[in-house]
Design a protein that fits this description.
four-stranded antiparallel sheet; 11 strands; mainly beta; single chain; seven-stranded mixed sheet; 116 residues
């Protein structure tokens, strides 16, 4: 019933920008914190950013802080990740996530490749 669908991934050159979207359904979006994670081949899945209900409080992993911006549109039930100054090490599959009553739900993932 809960669905998370990422979009907006693709190939971008180092220093470029990309914006990911995560469209959701099946739950009361505005009541929940939303998160972005990423996982590169051979690496652990890591938390990228999260945004709390209301959108006023956000947090970022150290390597992403200052370059990435998480935002949400409760009317559209969508969370976004704006990525600037992209680096090759940002290459990964990016996943949208929500924790609902102790259960984690994941999107299918969006591939982001940063390469010259």
């Amino acid at each position: 019933q809960v669905q998370l669908v990422e979009s907006g991934g693709g190939l971008v050159q180092p220093g470029g920008s990309l914006t990911l979207s995560c469209a959701t359904s099946g739950f009361t979006f505005s009541n929940y914190a939303m998160s972005w994670y990423r996982q590169a081949p051979g690496k652990e899945r890591e938390l990228v950013a999260q945004i709390f209900s209301g959108g006023g409080i956000t947090s970022y992993a150290d390597s992403m802080r200052g370059r990435f911006t998480i935002s949400r549109d409760d009317a559209k039930k969508t969370v976004y990740l704006q990525m600037n100054s992209l680096k090759p090490e940002d290459t990964a599959v990016y996943y949208c996530n929500v924790n609902i009553n102790g259960l984690r739900y994941w999107g299918q993932g969006a591939q982001v490749t940063v390469s010259s």
